[in-house]
Write a structure and sequence with these properties.
The protein is an all-alpha fold. The protein has a domain of 98 residues. 89% of the residues lie in helices and 0% in strands. The chain starts with a helix and ends with a helix.
Length: 141
């Protein structure tokens, strides 16, 4: 009986394609790229959400500093007493410049820049992820 089993197993051995190893390695690399693209896409989503959440307090802080610095009062002086502003334009200009909340403006611009960079990162990774997933659909179907 063992002899018949050996004959049967030898006659039904499956032939392994010559390029099977290369196909397996390509698929492993493909899955690694897909996982990396998904991770980058998730990171871009988190960065975008964080920058959106940081925008609200940055706007609030800028608004508060503008109201406390007197910038609005100095700026409205142009409309209410233009002759006095014109007569003392150098002092007025310096007072106006000194009342601008530069640090808060820089902070808000930094948050906006972070948002734009995160959006660029998100769109770029979205395109790459969609390309990889489309390629996966072609390979599996």
């Amino acid at each position: 009986m063992k002899g018949n089993l050996k004959k049967l197993s030898r006659s039904h051995q499956a032939e392994v394609p010559a390029d099977l190893f290369q196909k397996i390695m390509r698929r492993i690399r493909f899955e690694q790229e897909l996982a990396l693209a998904r991770q980058r896409f998730a990171l871009a989503n988190v960065l975008l959400l964080a920058s959106l959440l940081l925008t609200v307090p940055a706007w609030q802080k800028l608004w508060l500093e503008f109201s406390q610095s007197g910038f609005g009062q100095y700026a409205s002086l142009i409309l209410s007493d233009f002759k006095t502003v014109l007569a003392n334009w150098q002092d007025y200009g310096m007072a106006l410049l000194e009342s601008i909340p530069v640090v808060e403006i820089a902070g808000l611009l930094s948050v906006i820049l972070l948002f734009l960079l995160a959006l660029k990162f998100l769109v770029g990774n979205r395109e790459k992820l969609l390309t990889i997933m489309a390629l996966d659909n072609r390979l599996t179907h």
